[in-house]
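hiii so um. not sure if this is the right channel but i have a protein structure encoded as tokens and i wanna go backwards to a sequence. like what aa goes where. can anyone help
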């Protein structure tokens, strides 16, 4: 009777975990069956400036990265079905139920990701170190998106300056000038929208990795602030770290912390480029030499 009661409790916990993970899948946009950039309309017809639009097209390539993210893979890759196997009462039922209950404390896609990591890597230090790989992958995607956005912005900015000069020299008609300017504004706005969508989704992944990482640090009895100090000291910064603190921090945690700090730097740069894009649109739409040619879309900028 006692064993039956235990099994009943475990089964109940496992069912709760499965339900939570299913909800998590919905929370992160149906396990990314529809990616963020696909929701941004392709509003620009690259008639005059195809070279400027090329990096904008590449920005849409973040779709594949989203579908292959560690968070998406954790949930869509059979996680729920695997955890449901704990309902059978086999040797893994107790562990799966406990993991599921722990994951239930996390938000959104982080729950499914955390559970899958716990199942894949049972050694605490190795698992903590594995987060660095996933964080670095997302950081690479941020850097990639930022690079394409910068390239598009720079190209459209050059073309705008050239168009303005052409108008001053009366080398372009008003009709053609308006059409050229409308394409520039459209391209800049589409670039901004794609960057925001890509950054938002990648940010969700990074949040999931960070939540899981911090939860595992707590599990091994290490404060993240202490890990951060060790990482900063390793980087040559003037931070006081005692021998006792350094001895307590796993080297794998330091590697993951460095990856997390690098990711934050990339996200800051992404936000800076996004702000720059908005400023650029405002400058183009309200330029004293070109303002009367501004398209209707400028009113919505």
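sure thing!! here u go:
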């Amino acid at each position: 009777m006692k064993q039956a009661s235990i099994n009943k409790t475990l089964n109940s916990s496992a069912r709760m975990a499965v339900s939570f993970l299913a909800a998590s899948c919905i929370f992160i946009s149906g396990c990314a069956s529809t990616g963020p950039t696909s929701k941004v309309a392709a509003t620009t017809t690259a008639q005059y400036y195809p070279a400027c639009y090329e990096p904008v097209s590449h920005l849409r390539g973040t779709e594949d990265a989203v579908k292959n993210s560690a968070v998406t893979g954790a949930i869509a890759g059979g996680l729920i079905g695997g955890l449901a196997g704990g309902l059978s009462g086999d040797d893994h039922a107790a562990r799966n139920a406990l993991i599921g209950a722990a994951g239930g404390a996390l938000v959104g896609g982080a729950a499914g990701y955390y559970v899958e990591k716990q199942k894949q890597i049972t050694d605490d230090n190795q698992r903590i170190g594995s987060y660095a790989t996933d964080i670095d992958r997302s950081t690479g995607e941020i850097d990639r998106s930022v690079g394409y956005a910068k390239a598009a912005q720079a190209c459209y900015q050059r073309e705008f300056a050239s168009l303005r000069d052409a108008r001053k020299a009366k080398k372009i008609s008003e009709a053609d000038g308006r059409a050229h300017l409308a394409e520039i504004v459209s391209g800049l706005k589409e670039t901004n929208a794609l960057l925001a969508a890509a950054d938002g989704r990648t940010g969700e992944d990074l949040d999931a990795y960070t939540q899981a990482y911090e939860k595992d640090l707590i599990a091994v009895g290490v404060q993240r602030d202490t890990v951060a100090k060790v990482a900063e000291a390793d980087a040559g910064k003037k931070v006081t770290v005692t021998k006792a603190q350094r001895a307590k921090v796993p080297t794998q945690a330091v590697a993951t912390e460095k990856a997390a700090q690098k990711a934050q730097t990339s996200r800051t740069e992404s936000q800076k480029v996004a702000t720059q894009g908005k400023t650029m649109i405002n400058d183009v739409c309200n330029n004293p030499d070109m303002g009367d040619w501004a398209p209707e879309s400028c009113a919505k900028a």
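oh and The two ends are 68 Å apart (CA to CA).
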